Amino acid sequence: MSSAIDLNCDMGESYGAWHMGNDEAVLEFVSSANVACGFHGGDPSTMRKTVAAARSRNVAVGAHPSLPDLVGFGRRAMQITPQEAYDMVVYQVGALSAVAASQGVRLHHVKPHGALYNMAAKDAALAQAICRAVRDVDASLVLYGLAGSHLVSEAEQLGLTAAHEVFADRSYQDDGSLTPRSQPGAMIEDVDTSLAQVLRMAQEGVVRAASGRDVPVRADTLCIHGDQPNARIFAQALRDALAKAGITVRTVPQA
User: Fold this and answer.
1) C-alpha triplet 129, 135, 136: angle, nearest 5°
2) Virtual CA dihedral for 197, 231, 89, 85, nearest 10 degrees?
3) Does a structural domain hold residue 164?
4) Domain that holds residue 214
């Protein structure tokens, strides 16, 4: 059973006149914020505002690098080489690091976004390139990756602190991967269903896959998606449920 867990949320994904999510409300309940770096969402002003809002609530700030796909919100797979992945991550982490420094904040972690995250979870070479990029920018950064995936194993092999990530609002497959968003039931929209899944992951170290099978998971950090309509309701309900279960919400310690 976990006595503590990080509660993270993807945010800062508004872009220009396009508004996404309710970041200010969700920040009241999370311990870590994954801030979009401009490739799938976010822009310089949104990055600055999101970092400043997180700082004012003592929420850890992390970079949320993506494939270069604003139209597809970073959720469409692309054919990229490991070197291209390395360059994309260095570029985006560097950008958010500079924005954070302007607000008196130091980055805490890096969590790849969307298709890049899911591709690297299953592709060791791609995962290693992403982790090398993080290490080469700042070896003290924590790498957030899908629990049990290549992202966390490659991070650990390179000497990074890795946080095994589980999801409050996504369903799972038998291999521990997330159900593709193109399939029915990929998103968990019912709060009670989400809470039951989260408590089993935190207390028992398992998640019920879509097939009905229990799959082992390690839960260091728990994600909710800031772009879902009920993000604030989910965040508050999760925080309350974790407290009642005696599980402390806290940021993943850096090495």
Assistant:
1) 90
2) 60
3) yes
4) 4-249
CATH number of the domain within which 187 lies: 3.20.20.370
Tokens standing for residue 167: 């999801």
| pLDDT tens by residue, 42-82 | 999 999 999 999 999 999 999 999 999 999 999 999 999 99
Residue 26 lies in a domain: yes
The reply to whether the predicted model has a pTM over 0.85 is: yes
Q: Return all residues near 162 (Cβ < 8 A) that are at least 6 apart.
A: 142, 143, 144, 145, 151, 152, 153, 155, 156
Q: How far apart are CA 59 and CA 95, in angstroms?
A: 19
Query: Measured in whole angstroms, how far is the alpha carbon of residue 81 from the centre of its chain?
Result: 22
Domain presence at residue 255:
no
| Cα 203 from Cα 217, distance rounded (Å) | 11
Predicted confidence (pLDDT) per residue in 212-240, tens digit? 999 999 999 999 887 777 788 889 999 99
